[in-house]
């Protein structure tokens, strides 16, 4: 075992017993690959999920977040549910590290009027702050 | 565990190319793979040369350089942080993408945690803003998604692909 830390040991043992072709990175044990992925900012995970099925599985796994906790790179995001004009419900996420607001995919079975989507992300944060008001303090807490 | 006093002599490592490289026991100790050699009862420091068929002389010297620098700078406090940072930057500057990846393999083979941690971070920094295509190519990962599945992920997270460096 290269990396210490009892908490995740059993899971790591499981993951390192994979066959070569289902490895995250063919030339490296998954244990090391997870150490690399855990050091990438969370915001990159959404695109990294497309690398392969194994990557998607790893990114969604509790093992990865175990490692991130050990590394102290949890990166908590702030999620805000907003109700815009026509009772349309939208989730937004703030990544305090990159200070980027992201619109989450619309929830299924919720009316989907695309006009709000097309207005672009730039205008949204202001509206959101004014809607949620005191949540600035929440964001401050998370950033500390 | 009963231990004889640490021998003062150096440890001889033979990379797959080039000459034998001598390292201090303190440096050798940080390489778990070497450590297990040394702890073996039949190991005699004066005559035994440890062969490293998976490590090149270049990689071995890089790893030794890193360990040497960092073990020396540990003794001093905060004021060396700047120069350590500079050393780390210079260290990586000399490594092209492939060399970085190969050095990671070597560090993994030698099982040297400090260098592994450092290189994992370096590789993470390298891929964080790169396209999925770059990441696959860099690591030699085969895309096992169907075209439809991949398009589906892309569509669901369309915004996540904004601001990605082209390669």
How would you characterize this protein structure?
The complex is a heterodimer of chains A (144) and B (167). Chain A is of the alpha+beta class and 144 residues long. Chain A is 42% helix and 13% strand. In chain A, a hairpin with a 3-residue loop joins β1 and β2. In chain B, 54% of the residues lie in helices and 7% in strands. Chain B has a 3-stranded mixed β-sheet with strand order 2-1-3. The model of chain B has no long low-confidence stretch (mean pLDDT 86). At the A-B interface, α2, α3 and α4 of A face α5, α6, α7 and α8 of B. Chain A: Pfam families: F-box. Chain A: InterPro entries: F-box-like_dom_sf, F-box_dom.
Question: What secondary-structure arrangement, pairings included, does this model have?
Answer:
The complex is a heterodimer of chains A (144) and B (167).
Chain A lengths: L8 H7 L14 H8 L7 H4 L4 H8 L1 H10 L6 E7 L3 E8 L4 E4 L10 H5 L5 H9 L2 H9 L1
Antiparallel strand pairs in A: 1-2, 2-3
Chain B lengths: L10 E5 L5 E3 L1 H5 L2 H8 L9 E4 L4 H18 L6 H13 L3 H14 L2 H15 L4 H8 L7 H10 L11
Parallel strand pairs in B: 1-3
Antiparallel strand pairs in B: 1-2
Helix pairs in contact in B: 3-4, 3-5, 5-6
